[in-house]
Amino acid sequence: MSKLVGTETVKRGMAQMQKGGVIMDVVNAEQAKVAEAAGAVAVMALERVPSDIRAAGGVARMADPRIIEEVMNAVTIPVMAKARIGHIVEARVLEAMGVDYLDESEVLTPADEEYHILKSDFTVPFVCGCRDLGEAARRIGEGASMLRTKGEPGTGNIVEAVRHMRKVQAQIRKITVMSDDELMTEAKNLGAPFEILREIKKAGKLPVVNFAAGGIATPADAALMMELGSDGVFVGSGIFKSENPEKFASAIVQATTYYTDYDLIGRLSKELGSAMKGIDISKLSLEERMQERGW
Amino acid sequence: MLTIGVLSLQGAVAEHFLQIERLGARAIEIKQPEQLTDIDGLIIPGGESTTMRKLMDRYGFIGPLKKFANENKPIFGTCAGMVLLAKKLSGSEEAHLGLIDITVTRNAFGRQRDSFETTLNMHGLVQTIPAVFIRAPIIEEAGEEVEVLASHEQSIVAARQGNVLVCSFHPELTEDTQILGIFIEMIKDAQKIA
User: Fold this and answer.
1) Is B172 a catalytic residue?
2) Which residue range is the domain that position B154 belongs to?
3) CA distance linking residue A141 with residue A295, whole number of Å
4) In Å, how far is A58's CA from the nearest CA of chain B?
5) Rounded CA separation B147/B150 (Å)
6) Model confidence pLDDT, tens digit, residues A162-202
7) Regarding beta strands A79-84 and A42-45, do their DSSP bridges make them parallel or antiparallel, or are they unpaired?
8) Where do the annotations place D-ribose 5-phosphate binding (chain A) (predicted)?
9) Are A154 and A237 in contact (CB under 8 A)?
10) A67 near A25, Cβ under 8 Å?
11) A125 in contact with B at a CB cutoff of 8 Å?
């Protein structure tokens, strides 16, 4: 009996097992353990969380492999890590290290402003950001096994993640009622691969899991994204930039599972201490907006 | 019509729903322990066992789930569900529900890059089944009362003891509903006895 690794089912299936969960950014083993104890479904090992990347400026690259290894040794839940957009070698290095999921991420400074990584070439699955259905379909076309909204990372401001999730959902609804002869023009307008669009039209949904990311700062934010149809949430700077990370992390996990239990979310939100401060998106110049990275 | 609950704290819930409905049963999400009285059988899906355990503790599921099993109601655990149902876990980890006499090793095949799909022969089924293993656990040891249903490269990957059915892999990620068919027969048999 043959044994196949790195198949589409295996790569997409890994993301399906993360549904309804929270993936947390961590910068060391200690934070990874806090995240695991709070009920995170996975951790994203980074050198800096997005808000610190934003503050530090300069070129943001793949994390130091020592940090990633330290995190992998500290927890039994899956460990994800970020490679720069188009940086094939960073991705191969992370794959060789045994990282469970790669994020080809706009949070890091892109290595290639024209091409994304051909993710179907890899055994390790990838998650990628998207702002609309065209971008989602292009990433699926390249072999992404999981999607997330781009949002606006490191801002603690949910508005862009909401915009991107609503946009993708609305565009899916739109194509499901289109006639077949309208679909090619829509593919052209969206810049989306026709075959993938046809698959989405037929199924009425994306063929991969779609999480929310980029600006989730409170339990209510996480619940909002679930209510809007997210399959789960990534929380970056929100947890370890808050006053009480343990409590905060646990509250976000619970709010994600019980996202329509508003009494509970109210109780969870009490006495959490202040959330990260946050940034008004309109105060960011176009160059400062990470979501503009990639295409 | 049979009603099958899927523990919906986290994980591949919708995939089990599709399979349950395809076999003509009703599927409901179980998010509170009180809901266990409404169902004929329970599926604990794939996902992250550590996450599910945290939520099971916080929302008081452990006692009611043991009671559910003791009332001879069938439970089916896939992957993380199998980890949660096992009597023992290898290493220093403490077991969770302890409802089937097996010792389970988590992430037994390695990390995600070692996840794979294959086909298996399963005891009691004529046709082979497609099996998707994702960071999968294996059954290191099975007690005398446990019936071994399938193995992969000498490791036990599916088993049954009384009203508890477990497998290391994810039938819910395939089109094949044969294992769910076994579980539905278990529910029907349990109802005949009751």
Assistant:
1) yes
2) 3-193
3) 13
4) 32
5) 9
6) 999 999 999 999 999 999 899 999 999 999 999 999 999 99
7) parallel
8) 25, 154, 215, 236-237
9) yes
10) no
11) yes
Best of B112, B174, B176 to substitute, by most chain A Cβ atoms within 10 angstroms, is: B112
CA angle B112, A234, A160 (to 5 degrees): 140
- Nearest by Cα to B66 from B76, B75, B53: B75
Q: Mean pLDDT over all residues of chain B?
A: 96
| B16 in A contact zone (CB under 8 Å) | no
Taking CB atoms and an 8 Å cutoff, what residues of chain A touch B107? Answer: 76
B96 has catalytic annotation: no
Q: Identify all chain A residues contacting B115, using CB atoms and an 8 Å cutoff.
A: 5, 10, 13-14
- The tally of domains found in chain B comes to 1
CATH classification at residue B20:
3.40.50.880
pLDDT at A276 over 80: no
Query: Do A14 and B46 lie within an 8 Å CB cutoff?
Result: no
B79 touches chain A (CB under 8 A): yes
Q: Which residues of A touch B12 (CB under 8 A)?
A: 13, 16-17, 19
CA separation for the pair B75, A213 (Å, rounded): 35
Q: Residue B179: which of B131, B109, B134 has the closest Cα?
A: B131
Measured between beta carbons, the chain A residues lying within 8 angstroms of B116 are 3-5, 7, 10
The answer to whether the complex's ipTM is over 0.90 is: yes
Q: Does any CB of chain A come closer than 8 Å to the CB of residue B107?
A: yes
Which of helix, strand or coil describes residue B19?
A: helix
How far, in Å, CA of B150 to CA of B134, rounded?
Answer: 17
Is residue A83 within 8 A of residue A104, CB to CB? The reply is: yes
B115 is in an annotated binding site: no
Q: Where do we find the tokens 């995170």?
A: A40
CA distance B91 to B74: 28
- Residues of chain B under the 50 pLDDT cut: none
HSE (CB half, 13 Å, CA atoms) of A274? 3
Contact A231/A179 with Cβ under 8 angstroms?
no
Kindly report, residue by residue over A45-96, the tens digit of the pLDDT: 998 888 898 888 889 999 999 999 999 999 999 999 999 999 999 999 999 9
Residue B95 vs residues A106, B42, B69, B78: alpha-carbon distances, Å? 40, 19, 16, 16
Q: Are A13 and B78 in contact (CB under 8 A)?
A: no
Do A78 and A14 touch, CB atoms closer than 8 A? yes
**B120 near A CB under 8 A:** yes
